[in-house]
Amino acid sequence: MPLDRERLGKIDDFLKSAYLDPGRLPCAVLKVLHKGETVHSSVQGMADVAAGRLVAEDTIFRIYSMTKPITSIAIMMLVEEGKLQIDDPVHRYIPAWKDLKVYQGGTLKTGWKTAPPARPMQVIDLLRHTAGLTYGFQLNTNVDAAYRRLGIGEIEKTDITLERMIELLGQLPLEFSPGDFWNYSVATDVLGWLVQVVSGQPFEQFLAQRIFGPLGMTETGFSVRDGQAHRLATCYQPSRTGGMDVQDQAETSPFLKPPAFISGGGGLVSTAADYLKFAEALRTGTPRLVGRKTLELMTANHLPDGKSLPQLSRSAFSEAAYDGVGFGLGFAVTTAVHKTMVAGNNGDYFWGGAASTFFWIDPEEDLTVLFLTQLIPSSTYPVRRQLRSMIYAAVE
């Protein structure tokens, strides 16, 4: 069905009045594609507020966890080549993890009390965040406190390499037995290590040769390319007065140089045009990254017993609302649209990033939507749900 462009145009006024003018968001880049045609495109606000630098079509954004679908696709490319299977035990590729245990008590300082898991961690657990891993920012348990103490998964601050992260994780207990719960975690970073081990080439090289190159994603990578620093947006966080404070200044950002930690879970920077190339390749299958049946497998709900996130989650934070949503192999998936209490379709799949970026693909409507801004954390405002409501209101 076509989309009403007049209704879509009203979204720009909404973003300006509700978020940009009051200083709640620095910028708003919105792209809506229907059957591959751009039916709405808007670029508003500032890439750097203090400097008065306008956001532009070629502005470079930290996409953080929107890296995860790219890493998950990389793994599934290797599955298609027969080089691993999603039900393989992870210790087949990380032998030191063969005897991982589950947390029962204790701390990093006092020592851990543990028990054996009910079953070994499998590759599918990494893809769907049921591995028993966590993030330090979850602030839930003594295990995630250990992640914070060791600097595990801290993209911008750490000098811990991916290989060293794998070593450290092998010394810590799991939060729970794999498959028992859903917990947003460094699991996708571990997938990046698996890509490296199985393919025999550095993870970043695999992405460059197998995904970014074929798609023409010339401005996506783990750091801003030479000569492009002036295009990086500054990232912000809410201030106590209701405005914004600088979280990561563009001119001094760690994303301006290659990182020690190559994070498949959140390390990429990209542009609107580049990320749309990836999203459209998923929607259309052209250029081919993975086959149609593989993508159908990835966008099915893989939570055990067909459960939804509220039934299985132990996570204090996620890039998805929970009700009516399951999780596939690298994406959240709408499973019961009426429970989400926002318009959409069962089978649409999506994810977002910590700086409030977001994308979704709706196969039923042939719809691809991308929203880019730079405000941490993404849970600050309900802009994603509002955009869903307003865009689906334009579907005729």
What does this structure look like?
This protein is α+β, with helices and mostly antiparallel strands. It contains twelve helices and 14 strands. It has helices at residues 5-20, 68-80, 123-128, 142-150, 162-169, 187-199, 203-215, 272-284, 292-298, 309-312, 337-340, 383-392, and strands at 27-34, 37-48, 53-54, 61-62, 102-107, 111-115, 235-238, 244-248, 269-270, 325-327, 332-334, 349-352, 358-362, 367-372. The chain has an eight-stranded antiparallel β-sheet, with helices on both faces. Strands 4-9 form a two-stranded antiparallel ribbon. The protein is globular and about 60 Å long. The relative contact order is 0.18. The mean pLDDT is 96.
Rounded mean pLDDT score: 96
State the secondary-structure class. Answer: alpha+beta
Using the CA coordinates, give the radius of gyration.
Answer: 20 Å
Indicate the overall shape. globular
Major β-sheet annotation: 8 strands, antiparallel
The share of residues in helices is 25-40%
Query: What is the overall number of helices?
Result: 12
Strand order of the largest sheet: 3-2-1-14-13-12-11-10
Query: What is the H/E string?
Result: HEEEEHEEHHHHHEEEHHHEEHEEEH
Number of strands: 14
List low-pLDDT spans.
Answer: none
| Span of the ends, CA to CA | 6 Å
Binned strand content:
15-25%
